[in-house]
Amino acid sequence: DDVRSEYMARRDLLVEHLRRMNGVVVPQIDGAFYAMVRLPIDDSDRFCQWMLEEFSHEGQTVMMAPGTGFYETDGLGVDEVRIAYVLERPELEKALKVLAHALAVYPGRTCEQPISAS
Q1: Among 30, 18, 11, which Cα is nearest to 89's?
Q2: DSSP for 15-45?
Q3: What is the pLDDT of residues 55-69, one digit of tens each?
């Protein structure tokens, strides 16, 4: 019960932060420890690689899985990433702030509205 409760709290934290970001679409998450999230980006493979190789905020970045690897049909998942919420809540919150900052400056951003990094 304690583990289940902790993961539900992590899920709720993830959803709350992601839904504050313009252009981000978060599905209903039931019974998993990850979310497939639609981001305002041109290419999830390129975005995830950019995050690891070129981006950092306050010396940190975030590792995610590109959505393209989770679909059999070409073209699906191109604007999606898989985010696992396995970090403890304080670290997860930091990671979400880093993601918000990354989305605000990513060169392949597809959302015209600024992304809140709060």
Answers
A1: 11
A2: HHHHHTSTT-B-----S-SEEEEE-SBS-HH
A3: 999 999 999 999 999
